[in-house]
Write a structure and sequence with these properties.
The chain contains 7 helices and 7 strands, in the order αβββαααββααββα. By secondary structure, the chain is α+β, with helices and mostly antiparallel strands. Helix 3 packs across helix 6, helix 3 packs across helix 7 and helix 4 runs antiparallel to helix 6. The longest helix is centred in the N-terminal third of the chain and has 21 residues. It is globular and about 45 Å long.
Length: 185
């Protein structure tokens, strides 16, 4: 994580100025994690949590699209590692890549100490919709296919960590309720 930050600072890809933070030319902001959790809780009351997922999926896709221009020639495996390091640097928790199958277009990420799950508290269902969307979008760009993501383990449900499976939707075991609630389909 610190190696990535040092590289970004040395290559002037992180800039701070009056009222402005830029990361790789993209304007950003520090937002407390509780903000995402409160927005999500409000959306969940109306069954519209899929909006967080779909917005984050677009954002993750566009982030990697932009990043590929800044670091042209980066291989898929390097881009995935870079993404894992950036997620850690961003404070989402401690991500690790468990599996990357370039042929089947499947990735599995584990996330220890999930910020969202810790702030959200106990839940009977997985809660990391924003992270799920980011990984689906990033994976979609890197693997050049429309991918989706399910959270198979969640700290909020009492699991020891969160696990995210990214794959084409037809390979994910998704109920019709989850398709509606979590994917908006």
């Amino acid at each position: 994580m610190f190696t990535l930050m040092a590289k970004l600072l040395m290559s002037k890809q992180v800039k701070f100025s009056d009222g402005r933070l830029e990361l790789m030319g993209i304007r950003d902001s520090f937002t407390p994690g509780v903000t995402f959790v409160e927005i999500q809780k409000e959306l969940m009351k109306s069954g519209r949590q899929h909006l967080i997922y779909s917005s984050a999926k677009k954002s993750g896709y566009n982030w990697f699209k932009y990043m590929s221009k800044v670091y042209s020639g980066m291989k898929q495996t390097e881009a995935v590692k870079w993404g894992v390091d950036l997620m850690s640097l961003s404070g989402w928790g401690i991500p690790t890549l468990e599996k990357l199958d370039l042929e089947k277009k499947i990735t599995i990420f584990n996330l220890k100490n999930s910020t969202v799950a810790k702030l959200y508290g106990k839940s009977s269902t997985p809660v990391d919709h924003f992270f799920r969307g980011l990984t689906a979008g990033g994976g979609s760009y890197i693997l050049n296919e429309d991918l989706d993501c399910v959270e198979t383990h969640c700290l909020s449900k009492g699991d020891g960590f969160c696990r995210f499976l990214v794959a084409p939707i037809n390979l994910l075991e998704v109920s019709s309720k989850s398709l509606r609630d979590d994917f908006g389909r």
